[in-house]
Amino acid sequence: MSKDKFLGEFEQFLLLAILKLGDSAYGSSIRQLLAETIERDVTIGALYTTLERLESKGLVESKMGEATPERGGRAKKYFKVTAHGQMALKRSKDALANMWQDLALLESI
Amino acid sequence: MNPITIQPPVWSGRFLQWVLPSKLKEPILGDLEEEFLSRAQINPNAAKRWYQQQALRSAFQFLWKTKRGLMMFIFSLVVFGGLTIMALVWGGGIDMFIDIPSAMLVFIPSTVFALAATSSKTLSQGISALLNDESQFDKQTLTNAQLFFKVLGQTAILTGIFSSLIGAIAIGSHFQADDFSTSFGPVFAVCILTLTYGFGVKTICYVAEQKLQFKINQLV
After folding, report:
1. pLDDT by residue (tens digit) across A28-49?
2. What is the rounded distance in angstroms from the CA atom of residue A79 to the CA atom of residue B63?
3. CA distance to partner chain A, nearest, from residue B37 (Å)
4. What residues 25-64 of chain B have any CB closer than 8 A to a CB of chain A?
5. In angstroms, rounded to a whole number, what is the distance separating the alpha carbons of residues B126 and B120?
6. By CA distance, what is B35's nearest residue in A?
7. pTM for the full model?
8. B2 or B116, which is more confident?
9. What digits encode the pLDDT tens for the residues A54-64?
10. What are phi and psi of A64, to 5 degrees?
11. Are the C-beta atoms of residues B179 and B187 closer than 8 Å to each other?
């Protein structure tokens, strides 16, 4: 039986956001996508703390991009989900699907 | 107003920059400024409030990670200062423990001696090493900074003892039997104030020395 822990809720949302954004996945764009899609207003600090943790686990990798005047001449840091990260996402998704099997919520909900 | 000329709030941005780890300064500050300018096109005041909230909340999230050493150092000084003041108040009031000439006899020569033994550059490097956990100094620089605080603390005690002895001699030379019962107490109290100041300085310097030793040990 696998001893790997499942991804946390926020970690999953982050990885999915990075996958959705593709080559445009950097801090600000990830933050805005989360705010628009799941109505979760995350501080930029919390976002990068989790991204650092995901990177240390090998689930994402990063690279510095171009600097722009709108950013005060500062470069963007782009993120990409690794193969290991995609496997972790699939594992969490499959586990959730297994738990949902044969379950039905009340129709009124 | 051209939105690109609107600047983000300065102080919250500077606080965040101070707190952030080096490798995250550029992306985080860049992201915040980019989104700030985008929001400022719609509502500049709301954008400033948003930026301040983001900067301060993010800064507090990193504060314990990046400034733990500084916070504990300041906390230890606050605890020491607070307990000292409590003792002074319970001892009968703070006023009797304040004497400017006694303070000058301890602080001025000890500071001058410490600067003469090392340098003002060593002092500024030492303070930087104490207050900034991310500062990178080599072993020699940290050892020199440690020496500054060692000399400051030791000299403060020595000048305190020396000044107390001067006071004791003055008391012994001038006191008459008639004065003894009324004046000896207050005069003696002032006499040993220099010693008290000396030990107070030494206590703080000892903490600084040990913190620098900790940084030296981490280099090994």
Report:
1. 999 999 999 999 889 999 999 9
2. 24
3. 7
4. 26-35, 37, 54, 57-59, 61-62
5. 10
6. A28
7. 0.71
8. B116
9. 999 999 999 99
10. -85, 140
11. no
In sequence order, the β-bridge partners of residue A81 are A60
The residue of A10, A30, A63, A70 whose CB has the most chain B CBs within 10 angstroms, and thus the best one to mutate to test that interface, is: A70
Integer angstrom CA distances of residue A49 from A31, A35, A46, B71, B170: 13, 17, 5, 20, 64
CATH number belonging to domain A9-100: 1.10.10.10
ipTM above 0.85, yes or no: yes
For B54-71, write each residue's pLDDT tens digit: 999 999 989 988 888 888
Between CA B88 and CA B82 the distance in angstroms is 10
Write the DSSP assignment of A6-18 as a string of letters: PPPHHHHHHHHHH
Please, are residues B104 and B160 in contact by the beta-carbon 8 Å criterion? no
d(CA A81, CA A60): 4
Rounded to the nearest angstrom, the minimum Cα separation between A12 and chain B is 21
How do residues B140-171 score in pLDDT, each as one tens digit?
999 999 999 999 999 999 999 998 998 888 88
Rounded Cα distance between B193 and B96, Å, is 9
- Contact map slice: A 30-89 vs B, CB within 8 A: 31-32, 43-46, 48-49, 52, 64, 67-72, 74-77
Pairwise CA distance, residues B48 & B27, whole Å: 19
Domain range list for chain A: 9-100
